[in-house]
Amino acid sequence: MPSKSSRISQSRRIEQAYRLAREAYATFGVDTDAAIKRALQVPISLHCWQADDVRGLETPVAGRDSGGIMATGGYPGRARDGDEMRADLDLVLKLLPGAQRLNLHAFYAETGDTAVDRDELAPEHFSRWLDWAGRRKIGLDFNPTYFAHPRAASGFTLSSADKGVRRFWVNHGRACRRIAEHFAKKQGTPCVINHWIPDGTKDQPADRWGPRARLVESLDAILKDKVNTRQCVDAVEGKLFGLGSEDYIVGSHEFYYSYAQSRKLVPCLDLGHYHPTESVADKVSALLQFHPKLLLHTSRPIRWDSDHVVILNDDTRALFMEIARGGALDRVYVALDFFDASINRIAAYVVGARATRQAILLGLLDPTELLKMADNAGRGHERLALMEHAKAMPWGAVWDMLCERDGVPAGETWLVDVANYESEVLSQRR
Ligand code: RNT
Ligand code: ZN
To answer: Which of 77, 137, 337, 426 is the one with CA 20 to 30 A from 50?
Structure first.
């Protein structure tokens, strides 16, 4: 632990650097105090599945490399049950500035000694998560788990040609919506429920039509139940390909944008789900012309949808820059989606969540008004020069102040807490 006097001198350094940064930004027409305040308010929904490498809490564990997604690596300390997950998340929450939520997957139900299949899940199977979230005053979001299950082994779930399989997953989706509605009622904030299915094929199918028609039918059957849609906010997530579904994905982007539009659902954009040269940032202003809200899964693909820990790279920055420039921060739900089993998992959360909030802050520190003025006046060279200059602005000093104001460690001193926890707690997990 840093000593009290070194903490005081660090605070003083942060204060001094911030004063200079605030002035520099003010000449740029940017109010750093307002940016800090706003950046802290945006809720980031922490995905529970980084804690245990997307295994879930069912017994027997249904298999971790299913559904075209896979956590690779064998770093020690994986959380093995709900209590360990919550303990890990407690430390994560302490090290993150700003508003947080927790994003649960259905296979993190805690059903004690009785096995409860996915189509029979009910709110009471999540009571421990709800109690925990209530004590921490954070809201829960939710996801049906349409993978890692014997009935998903064929590679098809909601779009399966098998009526029984389809019915099972429809009932799972319906059960999950009731759970999401229950969460929302308890916590007093809407619960975003994201539907992602792995359905697809490794090689070219003869029939691309049938599964898509069946997916429409199944989703409609799930949505037919009356739930309060202000509480249970349904989102649908498309993708380009997965492991073992390289050629054909039933729920492609075009499918879900149109489905969401016609059924008044929220489209989910996952940063890892597009062609590597495609800009996800550019899609925001197109989709928000037609959809009131978007759900974002911040992730990081490396050559494929590898779900690496989010860092402050060009993609993350561009995404939130674009959202801030459009004044659309309250039209997006921000959620993390990555799983790296090769590094300390607490640090994975902290790095990814902090990078996401840094990108939000950077978006809010953008001198958008100046840039637009230059653009509108036809002075493209000025716009370009200002954009380049903005990159060299002292935003790090503003970030440190954001952490300071929210009472969490600035800089990288949080690594000490992670190291202590690793030696005291994680190293005991065998
Ligand atoms: C998979 C999707 C999906 C999952 C989670 C676990 O490609 O991104 O969001 O990562 O549901
Ligand atoms: Zn995702």
So the answer is: 137
As a whole number of angstroms, the distance between CA 165 and CA 147 comes to 12
Closest ligand 1 atom to 268 CA? 9
Q: Is the peptide bond before 211 cis (omega within 30 degrees of 0)?
A: no
CATH topology for 42-357 is: TIM Barrel (3.20.20)
Check: CB of residue 110 under 8 Å from CB of residue 55.
no
- Distance between CA 84 and CA 185 in Å, rounded? 26
Q: Confidence band (pLDDT; 50, 70, 90) for 79?
A: very high
Q: Give the rounded percent of residues in the chain with a pLDDT score beyond 70.
A: 98
301-354 tens-digit pLDDT: 999 999 999 999 999 999 999 999 999 999 999 999 999 999 999 999 999 999
**pLDDT at position 63, please?**
57
User: What is the whole-number distance in angstroms between the Cα of residue 60 and the centre of ligand 2?
Assistant: 25
Would you kindly state where each structural domain of the chain is located, as residue ranges?
42-357
Active site residues: 196, 237, 239, 270, 273, 297, 305, 307, 337
Pocket test for ligand 1, best of 196, 307, 334 (most atoms within 8 A of CB): 196
pLDDT at position 7 = 76
Per-residue b or e along 124-136, where b marks 16 or more CB atoms closer than 10 Å to that residue's CB: ebbeebbebbeee
| Ligand 1: centre distance to CA 109 (Å) | 17
User: Tens of pLDDT along 12-40?
Assistant: 999 999 999 999 999 999 999 999 999 99
Question: Rounded to an integer, what distance in angstroms lies between the CA atom of residue 173 and that of residue 183?
Answer: 15
Q: Could you list which residues have their CB under 5 Å from ion ligand 2?
A: 270, 297, 337
Q: How far apart, in Å, are the Cα atoms of 206 and each of 198, 203, 209, 210?
A: 18, 10, 9, 10
Write the DSSP assignment of 233-244 as a string of letters: EEEEE--S-BTT
For the question of whether the overall pTM of this predicted structure is more than 0.70, the answer is yes
Q: In the numeric block, which tokens belong to residue 270?
A: 């996952």
| Residue 302 near residue 267, CB atoms below 8 Å | no
Report how far ligand 1's centroid is from the alpha carbon of 196 (Å): 7
Q: From the CA of 54, give the closest atom in ligand 1.
A: 6
Which of 245, 250, 253, 270 has most ligand 1 atoms within 8 Å of its beta carbon, as the pocket-test mutant? 270
Pocket of ligand 1 (CB under 6 A): 49, 54, 69, 143, 196, 237, 239, 270, 297, 305, 337
Q: Tokens 């997965």 label which residue?
A: 242
